[in-house]
Amino acid sequence: MRKQTSTPAEPEEEAEVRDPEALTRMAEATNRFVATVRSLTGQETRQPSLVPPWTRGHVVTHVARATDSLCRLLRSARTGVETPQYTSMEARAAEIEAGADRPVEALVADVLDTAARFDREIRALPPTAWQAKVRMRTGELRTPADLILTRIRELEVHHADLAAGYTFEDIPPDTARWIIDDIVAALRRRTDVPPMTIKATDTDLTHTLTPAPNAGPTVSGPQAALLAWLTGRAEDAPLQATPGDLPPPPFWI
Q: pTM for this one?
């Protein structure tokens, strides 16, 4: 185990990371997700999701195991001991596969239990831990405040993945905007993303990816459709590109 390095936050950031609105938004997203899972039958949990080859049961189990992984990162922030988000990608896949075919009641209980554990971990952080940065499996560094938003992202995107009535259009606009901003920030840190601009037609959201002399096409459409497209969930999203045809979305994670 290595000691976790941390970068001191500016004093004014401490109030932001303790923003109760983020915790409220997380709780509301959890409640919506659980309500949808609870409404499914056992047969329906074995039907395809928006992320094949996963079934709905795979998606629900992934949300629970991802929450466990975020709890590990929160403990790293609290203790200063670096712990990987997952022991390996093979172990991650095996855990999801093992839990996918459980009864609905077990799936719901798993989501509720892990949600409660995350809430306890985040509320137990001492002031110094909020300044720590922990490493996600993708290599990016996140603070505990970022992990709250990451958890909201997991809940909202994977709720839509269940294809059980909740769509990207149902994600609260402010939350959808943050998820897009976060995806764009990650894409800008890479060198393999082709230049393009994304522009929402129903909000003021506009982002240019990898600015270059040739800025590439502008992809425009409703904000919810842009989110679905950026996450690779909706190849038939109501979007248009100028000039040319709609390009494939850049690989995200």
A: 0.89
Q: H or E stretch including 31? A: helix 20-39
Torsion over CA: 78, 93, 25, 249 (sign):
positive
How far apart are alpha carbons 208 and 188 in whole angstroms? 9
What is the C-alpha to C-alpha distance for residues 35 and 143, in angstroms, rounded to an integer? 29
Is the pLDDT at 16 greater than 90, yes or no? no
Residue-wise burial string across 152-174, b where 16 or more C-beta atoms lie within 10 A, e elsewhere: bbbbbbbbbbbbbebebeebeee
How high is the pLDDT of residue 49? 97
Is residue 81 classed as helix, strand or coil in its secondary structure?
A: strand
Domains, the chain, in order of start with CATH, read 13-166 (1.20.120.450), 192-242 (no CATH)
3-state secondary structure of 119: helix
- Which pLDDT does position 212 carry in this prediction? 66
Q: For the chain, how many helices (H) and strands (E)?
A: 9, 6
Mean pLDDT of 168-196: 92
Q: How far apart are CA 99 and CA 233, in angstroms?
A: 23
With H, G, I as helix, E, B as strand and everything else as coil, classify residue 36.
Answer: helix
